[in-house]
Amino acid sequence: MTRVAVLGAGAWGTALADLLARHDVPTILWAYEREVAEAITSRHENPLYFADRQLSPALAATASLTRALEGAELVLTVTPSHVARHVWREAAAHIPDGTPLVCATKGIEPDSLELMHDVAHDEVPHARFVALSGPSFAAEVHEGQPTAVVAASEDYDAARRTQELFSWPSFRVYTQHDVVGVELAGSLKNVMAIAAGVLEGLGLGHNPRAALLTRGLAEISRLGQALGADPLTFAGLAGMGDLILTCTGGLSRNRQLGIELAQGVTLAEHRARVRTVAEGVNTALGATRLAERHDVEMPITAQVKAVLFDEASPRDSIRELMERDLKSEVWT
Fold first, then answer.
1. Is 327 a catalytic residue?
2. 110 band by pLDDT with thresholds 50, 70 and 90
């Protein structure tokens, strides 16, 4: 049986580690906080990031990155995007050549504007990169609700191995080849979820939400094609599937942030109160810069960035979007 090291004990990392452990896959979870590792190992719970949920007694955790990686035949990494490079740099010497590095992180590195596969190529070039993404709330995976995601890699054997390891009666994995499209879709849907939360917080209805979903997908696709992604990816689980879930589901951290922004809470106030990371924040900034670099129009993303970082009024941002020059729906 494949031994798995899971790097990152947030809600999603914990849920995936628990999924494997419950199916008798030898799994060890690395937590940055020692108290989290101790709670998972001794009490089978993660009080900081996955509270009130009982975890498999078979799941062990450690605060030692080296110990977590000892003997690992597959590494699942679920750290926030802004610390992924640092963690992978520390881990690289302990990951043997050819080991699948399965990345469930959804984000763009703020400074370099690199997607996670680019960062992995910089820091762990000897690993075989796989992006694991799709519509999946951690709480519902833990509850055993039917979930479908994709494993994308340019290395078919690595994608197939990931598919076989993670596929269970309640968790179905499809393989994919378009790493750029899968990663970009998974990152940018968080930006749209913030926008969806703003609509909710302002008390707006179904018409604006439908417009957001469709026009949001259009600008995600535009940037994706500019970066060489397959347009069909954005109609699949990692694209439309994840976009629908995150923009409409009440468990979305990014959507909840948008609701609070619409109600007058600042980003600084939110960050001071909420421990978990809303990946859409850094992604909004990174995607705006990427769009400028590639001369791609992304008006919704730009307005989300303005609300987050430039003190723009949510209502004024919606007005800006609605009063843009009229044009064809097709973006070619």
1. no
2. confident
Q: Is 278:254 a contact under the CB 8 Å cutoff? A: yes
| Helices first, then strands: H and E counts in the chain | 15, 8
Which residue in the list 106, 189, 305, 327 is annotated as catalytic?
189
In a domain, 331, yes or no: no
Residues 32, 258: Cα–Cα separation, whole Å: 28
Give the domain CATH number at 312.
Answer: 1.10.1040.10
Residue 127 banded pLDDT, cuts 50, 70, 90:
very high
Token reading at 320: 């800006």
Kindly state the average pLDDT of the residues 237-266.
96
Q: Are residues 150 and 207 in the same domain?
A: no
pLDDT for 332 beyond 60: no
Distances from the Cα of 110 to the Cα of 13, 107, 279, angstroms:
21, 9, 11
Residue 87: predicted pLDDT: 98
Q: Report strand pairing: 128-133 vs 100-103.
A: parallel
